Amino acid sequence: MKKKVFVFFPDGVGLRNFAFTDFKNIGKNMGFDITYWNNTIFSLKDNLGFNEVKIEDHSAHPLLPIYSRARKRAELNVSRDKFKDSVYPTYKFPFSYKGLKNIFKSLYTKWLIGLYSSENGVVKLRAKINKLERSTSKYKYCRAQLETHKPDLVFCTTQRATQSISALLAAQDLGIPTVAFVYSWDNVPKAMQVVETDYYFVWSDLMKSEVLQYYPFVKENQVFITGTPQFEPHYNTSLKQSREVFFSDYNLDIDKKYICYSGDDETTSPLDQYYLEDLANAVRSLNEKGENLGIIYRKCPVDFTTRYDAVIEANKDIIAVIDPIWKQVGSQWNQILPTPEDFKLLYNVCEHSEFVTNVCSSTVFDFLAHKKPCIYYNYEQPQLKKGIRDIGQNYKYVHFRSMPSQKAAVFCTDKNDLEYLVKQILDGQLSNVEECKDWYKIVAGTNPTKASETIWRIIKMLLTAN
Question: May I ask which residue range the UniProt record assigns to the signal sequence (predicted)?
């Protein structure tokens, strides 16, 4: 009899990895009965023809946001004190004191943080959160769904969504094994493990060691290294378009060489538009010296600001805008969802660009899969002033300590060097590709093409053991 697995989407961030890749087909071919347990407003049945069970009750306890924020800050305080490292407070967002409601929330949160900023305190705080969520109508609703459909295992596609807590508690209370996939390479040190499950799937040895380091209540035999499906499409050559077809589809100049500028969200890089302007100035200067270059600007999918518009308009002879193919289906950032078509677009942007430039993005690994270099900007802009976040902070984060060498990316630490670095890469005199291969293995594991298969293989092993 086929084992029934609920693939659980608490929000839309997991769609890219687990709905639009070959993940489902691989599991089906391995003999699993797969149902998508869907808490998002994106219909997997209507859009993709998948079996789904929709979660229509989205209630959470009114105190959940306060307790969740307190939990995160308490964990970061524990890490700060335990590892004697000042990086952890930089992961915190400031409190708001605008209006009575925000004043109350902030003061209540700070009181909780004061009570629970210890390893035992964090455990108690997590238990309190679980107690709150068990009292909700959503818990009862999800429990009833599970009792009706009787899955053998629930696979949660991200560990960081508070919307998943009540559903996973319902599964655990019914004795159904639960697995959480740790979604992103920077999530563990940032105290973004919202859920407690029976097992955790992580990208690499590095992430496994981090889970065990930051969460003493997790045991070694609960954590499995699977890789991530995130990069699998880059190895699917059926997505590749010829240069002629791709350039024709997006009205690019076939005679130009293009550099990709991969935009960042406003939190990570609040002055991001000025780095695009710097690249445009470098390209313009090189073109005056005989090069024939252009820029493909691919924005961050969840950035809907107008901050780039003036730079793009002033350099429209150089900058070609190719937006990601994502759909906004709600007002929250995690309701801006990818589409299957964007895999093909990103593949070809990587394939037909000379290299990528950005501020600290994991697109360094997307382009590495196509053997293309990456320039990271790491200098202050003159527009930086009090209240604006300096991008240099990003490179001090824990996940950047995984770099085996500073040569794993080409760092531009001075605006005046940018033109020279661009020219060096174009001439084949400078590249980070070989050094970045080692970093890629550290972060994403040793088998990036087999992550989906590995996940299903380990699920099968867990179900056999249970």
Answer: none
